[in-house]
Amino acid sequence: xxxxxxxxxxxxxxxxxxxxxxxxxxxxxxxxxxxxxxxxxxxxxxxxxxxxxxxxxxxxxxxxxxxxxxxxxxxxxxxxxxxxxxxxxxxxxxxxxxxxxxxxxxxxxxxxxxxxxxxxxxxxxxxxxxxxxxxxxxxxxxxxxxxxxx
Length: 150
What we know:
The structure is a single chain. By secondary structure, this protein is an alpha+beta fold. The chain has helices at residues 2-15, 32-65; strands spanning 18-21, 27-30, 79-85, 88-94, 100-103, 115-117, 122-124, 131-133, 138-140. It has a four-stranded antiparallel beta sheet with strand order 6-7-8-9, with no helix packed on it. Strands 3-4-5 form a three-stranded antiparallel beta sheet, with no helix packed on it. It is elongated, with a radius of gyration of 22 Å.
């Protein structure tokens, strides 16, 4: 059955022409090498989406189970971390001037717990790649909402 399916897909694929929408809203045909590039890009995107979908439950749970040994007073200027404050997880950032920002660590896209990226000074969602500035402002989707302030 598998051999027949492969042959069937190949013959079907030979008859399909990939069409894209141009900026002028006209359909353009892609052929030859460009068609292979488009196919590879689509396969790459599909693999990425599938991987994110498979890993989502794992990352969703991991963020909730992680324990932090840090405290607000142990944070250095310009450092952020997910801390437990009064029994709840809180995303805490201590600015260079010493100001403390407390945010909900729950990503507004699908509810994973964000991690602090020390290099870029951002809160990054491990599930689908949303990124937030240190103050919780979203600057890269898929999330469209800022992290909640506490």
